[in-house]
Structure formats: structure tokens, C-alpha cells
Amino acid sequence: MEEGPYKCVRAGGGSAASWTLSLKMFSSILFTLFQLARIQTDYVAEKLKNLYPDVNLGIVPMSTIGDKILDTALSKIGEKSLFTKELENALERNEVDLVVHSLKDLPTTLPDGFTIGAVLQRESPYDAVVLHPKNSGLTLDSLPDGSVIGTSSLRRAAQLKKRFSHLEFKDIRGNLNTRLKKLDEKEDYSAIILAAAGLKRMGWETRISQVLNPEDCMYAVGQGALAVEVRARDSDILEMVSNLHHPETVLRCIAERAFLRRLEGGCSVPVAVHTEVKDSVLSLTGAVYSLDGTDCLKDTMEAKESADFQHVGVTALNVPQFSQVAAEKLGVALADLLLSQGAMEILTTARKLNDAR
């Protein structure tokens, strides 16, 4: 989760330089004190600049709880909003207008009054193996027995322990630069596992020794995607950032986040996903693992996209799509609840009695 979040602050809310979003609206972007964070901030800022050429951007740094606690595994800290809380506090105080996150850092249930206004096109969601220089040319399969692999992710460790039983796995924390330094300058790790997206955004693709396919290691919910969080009531900001949405990424990440939320998962449990859209069909594979990877439940479901935005036979172009989706899900959820209580038996009996009349 080292990619880090960023926030936009209204002029007057601090000493930051300002940039014009629209008529008489001024803001500036903050980012965490890491190189990757700045790169991702600049990427989003450039997208906004291309859409709104009159915008002038000012960028200043900020840190979060997750950025400061670097000696403890994320799964043991117990804070669900490690990389978001301070930023959302600033949103709530109207000091900021929008926040850019790595989507995998965002809890699946946001605080009241906030919403994800944009999900940008996803970079590679897969995990990558970065080898110690002395192991150049090897893979996880060919590393010697007992080789130590660094990762702070329970999800990665659970899957890889099962797939590569000859290896050992050890926590490693720090931002991307720090973890690579720990790998290269010490003999503690034979390799480390990192998100391929971060390495690519840093321009360090040459450090990737192996990209892990879904059969070896499925990825984290939202991994590789950037999200823009805003106040739900700010319709002007919401409309502006909504132009950054990438439709396929949005669908994939909604499915992934819904899966994780239903499982009440997060950093403290090993949950993994893989999604794809092909021929207008959205496919979601999800799995849960025991910590040692020996127990696993895994399955795949598909859903066909609706090209005409129809929900249970209704096409309502003047009603927000998110409201229609919420209404449909509400009906399904209530049906599931009654079915679990024996509704099908009651309905079957009623049908039989009606047919006999």
C-alpha cells in the first residue's frame, strides 16, 4: 500500500499554492513524501489539466498513519483507514476538495458524505517478483529451498506458501524505494513481492524478474487503479472528476470491492480476486485463504453488461444509474433474506394450490 494518497486543498485552508478548477474555485494538491506518490499525483493532475486547460496546479506534501508506521505488518496494526483518515478529515473540514488514492487503500465502506468520484484506467493489477541481484535469472520455482521472500501482504503470503512450499516468507515494510534498498543492500531476502503497477509507474520495469499470473497469485481488490474521492454533496467537483472514469476499470473494481465488503475483509485477511471483461461479460474470480494457504475457497461468477442501462426491465435515463443499481440490489438482498427463511417452500405450495383450483 505504499503508493499513498494525495489531497486537494482550497486556497485559504493552508499556505499551499492554488489552482483554478472552475469559476472562482481554487485548490492545490498534496501528496505523501514518497517518489511514487508524487508520480501518481502528477499523473492525475495531468489528466485533469488535459480536460480543463485553464487549471493551474500547485502541489505540496502530506503524510498519513500508514506512511509513518513502517516497522509493523499492516495486518497487525488494526486501523482500517491507515492511508485515508487524515485526508478524509480534511475533506470533512472543507479544507480539501478531492483526494487521490491508490484504490486498494480505500476501505470498501466510506465515511458518510464521501464518494469515489472517479476510478482511472487500471495499470497492471498483478504482483511482481523482484530478485536480489545475486539471484538474477532465477524464478520463484528455481530459487533454492529455504529462500526468504519479503512481503507484508497476508494475501500474497497465503497463496505463495501453498504454491511455492519450498520458500519461506517474511514481513517487509517501507515505501517502494525503502523495500528495494532493503533487498539490494542486505542478505535478508532472496526476493520481494511488489505490485507491478508501482514499479511501472516509477519506470523500474527492468527490476521485474517475474510477473505472477492468477494461477500463482491473484491480486488485491482494486490493485493497480487510482481513485479520486470527493464530498458526495459537491456536484460540481463530482461532475468534473467523473470525466476521469474508465468504464471497464470501474465495473471490475465495483465487483471486486462488493466481494470484499460482503466478506468484511481488508488487510487483516487473505482475500484475492481476478476480474476481466470480455465480449460484454464481466468475470469475477474470488478466493479466501487460511493464513498458511492450506485452506482455500475459490470460485468464479459472470455477469453480462447491459448495453441499454436497463435494470429489471426498467430504463430510466433521467434517474441516476447508481440509484437504479442500489434499488435493484436492495430487491435482490431482501429476496435472498426471505429465501433463507423458507420463502421458496411457501411460494411452491402456493403455486401448486393455485394450479389445482
UniProtKB/TrEMBL annotation:
HAMAP family: Porphobil_deam. Gene3D superfamilies: Periplasmic binding protein-like II (3.40.190.10), Porphobilinogen deaminase, C-terminal domain (3.30.160.40). SUPFAM superfamilies: Periplasmic binding protein-like II, Porphobilinogen deaminase (hydroxymethylbilane synthase), C-terminal domain. GO terms for cellular component: cytoplasm. Residues 251-314 form the Porphobilinogen deaminase C-terminal domain. Residues 35-238 form the Porphobilinogen deaminase N-terminal domain. Its cofactor is dipyrromethane. One of its GO terms (biological process) is protoporphyrinogen IX biosynthetic process. Belongs to the HMBS family. It comes from the Eukaryota. Pathway: Porphyrin-containing compound metabolism; protoporphyrin-IX biosynthesis; coproporphyrinogen-III from 5-aminolevulinate: step 2/4. InterPro entries: HemC (IPR000860), Porphobilin_deaminase_cofac_BS (IPR022419), Porphobilin_deaminase_N (IPR022417), Porphobilinogen_deaminase_C (IPR022418), Porphobilinogen_deaminase_C_sf (IPR036803). Its EC number is 2.5.1.61. This is hydroxymethylbilane synthase. The keyword Disulfide bond does not apply. One of its GO terms (molecular function) is hydroxymethylbilane synthase activity. It is an enzyme of class 2 (transferase). The keyword Acetylation does not apply.
